Write the structure tokens for this entry.
Amino acid sequence: MGPETRLQINQFLEAVAAAPARLLMLDYDGTLAPLRKERDRVYPYPGMAAAVRKIMNGGRTRVVIVSGRELSELILRLGIQPLPELWGLHGMQRRRTNGRVETARVKQCYRDALSDAGRWLDYQELRHTAEFKTGSIAAHWRGLSDSAAEEIRARVLLGWEPIADWSGLQMLEFDGGVEIRAPGVDKGDVVRILLGEEGAGVVSAYLGDDSTDESAFRAIRGRGLSVLVRPEWRETAAQLRLKPPEEVLDFLAQWLAACQRNDAKDGATAVVVNG
């Protein structure tokens, strides 16, 4: 972590310490957990779930996980109990801390178009690359050589782009794949909803790694800190970059320490006043 990044974080954490309300929004794949070809074997980095749990328990912070995964998959892999608030499918699903789940309705016309997109994968013999989700299909090529990945991408887009054009489905490229999905909320909308619920005075941060997090980085601009989590730099709307997992773990530890430092000060003041 460079000195400029360290200075930005230290200044931000002073605001966290003094804040009457705190909101920490975290992506899953690539941020809390490593990117892997085997998506069903992705679990948080060692120590990551414990770090988030400590903030939930002792940091007086509203913690929200915002992922492109289905909620059912996210719950299986997260390893945090009790669960924080969860948003899945880039915002189409929401699980509140009381367990209530809300899922956006997908119109029949979009479901029909997604069926066409699935049939295109069958025709191209690419169904094995696909992840079928509520309201979307994602084709993955992470872990393949550049030439193999480009070949699969070209074959997928050859059929999916015309389907998106006539149906109104959206194309969303991410690190290692592409998703065709029903139009609706994205991660930027999630950030705006959460900031609106918290109101003025909240100090917030959003940490994410992928192009799908860019809308969230733009949405939090002027309202909080945006952090790109990635081993190497890329063009981004985020304000700074942290390398996973060590620098992310360090940031979470500092967040907790800032919260507890101010809470301890408040407690000491209360003792003097009450005494």
